[in-house]
Amino acid sequence: KAKSIGRGRLFLFVPALRMDAMARRRYGLELHRAVDEGEFLIFYQPQINLMSGAITGAEALIRWRHPERGLLAPAAFLPALEGGTLAATVGSWVLNEACGQASYWRRNGAPNFRIGINLCSAQFRVGDLATEVIEILDRHGLPPEALELEVTENIVLDNDDIVLEILDRLHKHGVGIAFDDFGTGYASLSLLKTYPLTRIKIDQSFVRGILNSKRDASVIRAILDMARSFDLETIAEGIETEAEKNYLQRERCDEGQGYLFGKPMTARQFEMLLGINVNTKVRA
Ligand code: C2E
Ligand code: MG
Ligand code: MG
Ligand code: MG
User: What stretches pass through the bilayer (predicted)?
Assistant: First the structure.
């Protein structure tokens, strides 16, 4: 009995930080296994030209098919990867997989298909990202303009000059650079001025407010005006209703993405949406 009390006490005195480290370590091991066992997969969410209604491409969104806990969204595991080399490893996997898939679709019925891929901070710190991306494009025969890399303000603020260097190189190569979650950060304007961007992704929090908040509607209009004066393409995220779509159309936002057009889906489901009849399995 004394022993169990002692144990309990010992447990109580383990500092919270150490517990976190242990939990993180356990999770880290699981994530390593996930990489080795190929438990990650990519969902694709359509992006639509708001004028024509045509599918222009898709954003690649990672999922983890966890053996016990089922399908996990990025919020459940990306934070645990934060900063580590494992994050860069997973990022490389996504780049290679999604570029391969995009190239395949371009060669099999969707010749102008564009793929959007999210980057994380760690990818700018480990290895040579620009060279890696160019090699991946070559490997899959994917033209640079078919790839759009999505960066957030955090990535830029975390890494400073190196991000500018890498993005400049990729931009000169012809790769698209989208500013993700635009409007939610603190430095959006100064980044707009400095970085080689080709597109702004208007954050879904503004889209959500369009219909009942004059302010959100004004923010969107201001972002679109600004984008035009910087000669940037625009896409609005998180469009869920016809009314939201109609507003954005009227304000001449170029493209849209959201549940109204399609939720993130498997490659196979996406092929059905594209109306191309190919067998994804045969390719692998
Ligand atoms: P994000 O890049 O801003 O991606 C958009 C998120 O909004 C996705 O969440 C998508 O499923 C969700 N979404 C799209 N349309 C709608 C809508 O109409 N309504 C609502 N409520 N949500 C919508 P998801 O897939 O959970 O991804 C969350 C975040 O995780 C992404 O935000 C991105 O920052 C990150 N992420 C996802 N995949 C990757 C990846 O491969 N690499 C990195 N570094 N980050 C990723
Ligand atoms: Mg994104
Ligand atoms: Mg976003
Ligand atoms: Mg986001």
Answer: none
Contact 218, 237 (CB under 8 A): no
pLDDT at 216: 87
Task: Find the 180 Cα to ligand 4 centroid distance in Å.
Answer: 7
Q: Which residues contact 29 (CB under 8 A, 6 or more apart)?
A: none
How many other C-beta atoms are found inside a 10 Å radius of the C-beta of residue 227?
Answer: 22
Taking 70 as the pLDDT cut, the residues of the chain under it are: 1-19, 82-83, 277-284
Complex ipTM:
0.98
Per-residue pLDDT at 4: 41
Ligand 1 pocket residue status of 118, Cβ below 6 Å? yes
Nearest to 229 by CA among 193, 182, 270: 193
Q: Which of 90, 74, 86 is nearest to 28 (CA)?
A: 86
| Distinct helix (H) and strand (E) counts, the chain | 14, 9
Longest dimension (CA), the chain: 74
Q: Tell the residue number behind the tokens 């160019």, with chain if given.
A: 134
Question: Ligand 2 is a single-atom ion; what residues have CB below 5 A from it?
Answer: 118, 150, 180
Tokens coding 216:
């959100």
**pTM of this structure:** 0.90
Q: Cβ(240) to ligand 1 under 6 A? A: yes
The whole-number pLDDT of residue 278 equals: 57
Asked whether 148 and 114 are in contact (CB, 8 A), the reply is: yes
Summarize pLDDT for 9-34 with one digit per residue, the tens.
334 444 444 557 777 777 778 888 89
